[in-house]
Amino acid sequence: MNSNTDLALFAPLGCGLQTGAGAILNTLNVKAAKIVAIFGVGSVGMSAVMAAKMRGAREIIAIDLQQSRLDLATKLGATKTILGNDPEVVAKIQQISPPNGIHYAVDCSGVPAVIQNMVDSLGSRGKAATVGAPALIPFLMKEHAKGNYPIENLITVYDMKDFNQAVKDAKSGKTLKAVLRWS
Q1: I need a surface site. Which of 34, 112, 140, 173 has the fewest CB within 10 A?
Q2: Membrane-spanning regions, if any (predicted)?
Q3: Which helix H or strand E contains 128, and what residues bound it?
Q4: Which backbone phi and psi does 98 adopt, to 5 degrees?
């Protein structure tokens, strides 16, 4: 990094982009010359596409509802693309990965039907990960309401004007999770 580096480019690395790359590089530990399918190529999925290319995957299959995203995925390293609303999505993936399915798959959509397609696309000993958890936030909110998930013990809310204090408290360990409220 040098003084001309635009740090704004790296702001999303802490969440979405790191998640997609981490699923490929760490969670699944994708090996070179293998076949990977990425379901949902928003920012998290695009990061997974790039990481699969870095790993030298033989085929990188991007699946999404938007053709423009599939076009970008191709530019970033996807070797095949499939529209997610295609009723033959699983069959098309299996045609790309004979004799029995893909080696690795990542779901970045969090949609149960998509997750099922991902699982159905796996070959013997195939590995899959999902980084979208659609029902988790509502579930955790319900558990909080029941008193089973007391997150208020972890969070300290600060007014935006107290930003510096929030940073100081987070660094010192006084707060576990600082939340800034814009008023």
Answers
A1: 173
A2: 32-52
A3: strand 122-130
A4: -70, 160
User: What type of residue is 56?
Assistant: G
Average confidence (pLDDT) over 133-153: 77
The whole model's pTM is what?
Answer: 0.77
Q: Rounded to an integer, what distance in angstroms lies between the CA atom of residue 3 and that of residue 101?
A: 47
Question: Measured between alpha carbons, how far is 156 from 166 in angstroms, rounded to an integer?
Answer: 8
CB atoms within 10 A of CB 2: 4
The b-or-e profile of 89-115 (16+ CB within 10 A means b, else e) is: bbebbbebbeeebbbbbbbbbbbeebb
- Residue 152 or residue 67, greater confidence: 67
* Residues sharing a CB contact under 8 Å with residue 118, sequence separation 6 or more, in sequence order: 37, 39, 105, 106, 107, 128, 130
The sheet with strand 35-39 has its strands ordered as 80-83, 59-64, 35-39, 102-107, 122-130
Distances (CA, A) of 57 to 24, 34, 105: 10, 5, 12
Residue type, 76: L
The per-residue pLDDT for range 156-182, each reduced to its tens digit, is 889 999 999 999 998 998 988 888 888
Mean predicted confidence (pLDDT) in 134-156:
79
User: Do residues 108 and 41 lie in contact, with contact meaning Cβ atoms separated by under 8 Å?
Assistant: yes
Question: What are 94-117's pLDDT values in tens digits?
Answer: 999 988 899 999 999 989 999 999
User: Quick check: 69 pLDDT over 60?
Assistant: yes
